[in-house]
Amino acid sequence: MATKKYYECERCGAKYLEKSLASKCFYWCKTHDNSCNLDIVKHAVRN
Ligand SMILES: [Zn+2]
Q1: Of the candidates 12, 15, 17, 41, which lies 20 to 30 Å from 35 by C-alpha distance?
Q2: Partners of residue 7 on adjacent β-strands
Q3: Ligand 1 centroid vs 23 CA: distance in angstroms?
Q4: What is the C-alpha separation between 34 and 45, in angstroms, rounded?
Q5: Are the C-beta atoms of 31 and 17 separated by less than 8 Å?
């Protein structure tokens, strides 16, 4: 029953366990169109 819920950055599709990280990533992706912030992306979940 416990489905893991991830928060996804709608810009780059990276998934995060914390909503705040997804929000940060989304904001970064939105304002820095061609670059990912490694400090944020390193927290992303890989499936
Ligand atoms: Zn992103």
Answers
A1: 17
A2: 16
A3: 8
A4: 21
A5: no
How many whole angstroms from 20 Cα to the centroid of ligand 1? 12
For ligand 1, the distance from its centroid to the CA atom of residue 12, given in whole angstroms, is 4
Per-residue pLDDT of the chain (47 residues; tens, 9 = 90+): 667 789 999 999 999 999 999 999 999 999 997 677 889 999 999 86
pTM of the model: 0.80
Secondary structure element (H or E) that encloses residue 8, with its range? strand 7-8
What is the CA(4)–ligand 1 centre distance, in A? Answer: 20
Residue 36 CB coordination number (10 Å):
17
Distance (Å) from CA 35 to ligand 1 centroid = 9
